[in-house]
Amino acid sequence: MSKYNELEAGKRYSAFAPNGSEILGTYEMVPARAEIAYFMKGGEIAAEGSMDNGVDWEWQGGTELFWDGSQTQERVRKLGAIEKWVVYLANDGEEYTVDQLDFRAFDE
Asked: pTM here?
């Protein structure tokens, strides 16, 4: 296993969290629109303390995702010259930055 600063240019690697969980991808935020069937005064959401002065809505049951607006999530922290770190997700659902990962070359 290697750390990110030990990787060789042009070589392909798999990445693993410190607990051995494989890194599956980056953490992405995707904008979306939940479809609304109708609005009403009162109702279940309003009874729980609505942000909209008691106006509630009924969800229609579909959500459209706007993939072109997807943004890779980053964590801001200073470590040497690097201030922003891409967030990676492991198969156990935990989040990691590249400096926390262990890498294994594909040919190992």
From this structure: 0.72
